[in-house]
């Protein structure tokens, strides 16, 4: 779905453009992010586009879809339901950015075209958490391991790992103890 900024400013200055559509973003997301997105259901969007007093455009929409993404532990496909809101402002020039807070999402429109599909696809990607696990992986207490390797969780290093000294550095273990005795003499 593509919208023209100038057309919106002419046609919808007094009344917002409302929409309720299903977008097919599967091909776009899988082409742009083949390692992060394995599948996408049709994306349902329900919202409006309104023209603000200064001629800026506000896009507000509720988005719901199901992404299939790889597990961050085993790469097994995991279905990830998403249900969120998007609020973005579109402005005609860089100078208009000063009217907004730093926390607002404000985009400068190029070539008079607002690409709603791209905006929704980008926001869908932002919904993917850093750690995605299958239900089985979530319920397991033990992490996978193999010959000479094991998965660990950052920040949860075992005490035995911190006490184990690399044999090549073992002689340095008491380096400061010896040097302090030399200083006393």
TrEMBL record:
Keywords in alphabetical order: DNA-binding
One Pfam family this sequence matches: YceD
Recorded superkingdom: Bacteria
GO molecular function: DNA binding
Protein name from the UniProt record: DNA-binding protein
